Amino acid sequence: MIEQMIGFVGAGQMALALASGFVNSGKVAGRQILAFDPSVESTQRFHSKIAGSTIVDANSVLIEKCEIIFIATKPQVMKQVYAEMSGRFSERHLVVSIVAGIEIAALAKGLGTTNVIRVMPNTPCLIGKGAVGFSLGESVDKRHRGVVQGLLDTVGISCEVSESLLNVVTGLSGSGPAYVFEMIEALSDGAVRMGLPRDVATKLAAQTLYGAAAMVLETAVHPGALKDQVASPGGTTIAGLYALEKGALRGTLMSAVEAATKRSIELGQSDR
Predict the structure, then answer these.
(1) Superfamily assignment of 6-163 in CATH?
(2) Sign (positive/negative) of CA torsion 38, 44, 48, 53?
(3) pLDDT, the chain, mean
(4) Where are the domains of the chain?
């Protein structure tokens, strides 16, 4: 269990997902969590879900009360956040940003601190199955890194990467759930075409992807080797794999990650 107080600038869905993960893991007590959001609806939902948490009336209060501050707002409101918080941080503070597209250097300049970690979460964090990438600012020490990674791991798995690769994380795990939803829908459509009821087809398709992903993570066997274990000579699986190769599934998925990565870079540059 960590001892620091944790503040959230923004109390929307992702802030709620992170705070829920922290508390449910036992690493943080609800009384250690504070949040500010101008939306009454968001703060009421946050407070009702995080038992013992405190809703404050200004971002500046979070600096007074908390050592770790998560910034979970939309990029377009960051100028206001900078105005309220810049110059108020000390060495005891650590800022963790999940704001899309804003680089560590810009955050450090706007907030007046280099003790910043930038995080790229994804929507499965909402159910504790996230895949999160994070990058460290120049002043972040090993202790703070360990604390934050421990917190992020409560909502899934986390991997440290250099900031230059966070756009790739965006293209892979940030956008990736949409690719998987598309695959589940397509597999379900194929099964419906061949006669399965829709509800059965969708349930089996989703569980198949879920189970296959779990095998990769839990066995640490290369996915190509796991694929070969399923594909017996002259069997049904190799026939299906041949159809996927003819349809260029592998190349299409690689292109999807590339396209999303490039778009993430473009969006980041447009915000400068």
Answers:
(1) NAD(P)-binding Rossmann-like Domain (3.40.50.720)
(2) positive
(3) 95
(4) 6-163, 174-268
Please answer whether residues 150 and 25 qualify as being in contact, where contact means their C-beta atoms are separated by less than 8 angstroms: no
Exposure of 177 in the CB half-sphere (CA atoms within 13 A): 12
pLDDT of residue 268: 75
pLDDT at 271: 56
**For position 270, what pLDDT does the model report?**
63
Q: Are 143 and 170 in contact (CB under 8 A)?
A: no
Query: Which of 271, 264, 263, 267 has the alpha carbon at shortest distance from 105?
Result: 271
Residue 108's Cα: distance from chain center in Å?
21
* Mean pLDDT in residue range 225-240: 97
Alpha carbon of residue 71 to chain centroid: 13
Q: Is the Cβ–Cβ distance between 19 and 33 less than 8 Å? A: yes
Residues 163-172, mean pLDDT to the nearest whole number: 95
SS (H, E, C) 134-196: EEECCCCCHHHHHHHHHHHHHHEEEEECCHHHHHHHHHHHHCHHHHHHHHHHHHHHHHHHCCC
The domain 174-268: what is its CATH number?
A: 1.10.3730.10
Q: What is the pLDDT of residue 1?
A: 87
Q: Cα separation of 4 and 18, whole Å?
A: 15
Q: Across residues 175-188, what is the average pLDDT?
A: 98
